[in-house]
Amino acid sequence: MHNVLEFHPKVMEFTGTVLDYIIVHELCHKLEKNHTKAFWALVNSHMPGWQRQHAVLEHAVFGDAF
């Protein structure tokens, strides 16, 4: 199962830009396992402005709970 990304089917309900963010996020975890500054810098290097898609995803998952 190494180097295989699997996604929950509900992921397909998001817009293309959010899907792109999810994929970039997971691919970056192949190099940086945790949400460190280096991880977020890597995400940013591949997807500047990722914060908007991240916020959409968090709102969909957690609603107003955070």
Structure description:
The longest helix has 13 residues, at 16-28. The model has no long low-confidence stretch (mean pLDDT 92). The chain has helices spanning 16-28, 37-46, 50-62. The chain has one domain. The chain has 66 residues and is mainly α. The chain is 55% helix and 0% strand.
Provide a short characterization of the protein structure.
This protein is mainly alpha-helical and 66 residues long. It is 55% helix and 0% strand.
The largest sheet is: none
Strand content: under 5%
Distance between the termini: 33 Å
Which range best describes the helical content: under 10%, 10-25%, 25-40%, 40-55%, 55-70% or over 70%?
40-55%
Order of helices and strands: HHH
What is the mean pLDDT? 92
Instruction: Specify the structural class.
Output: mainly alpha
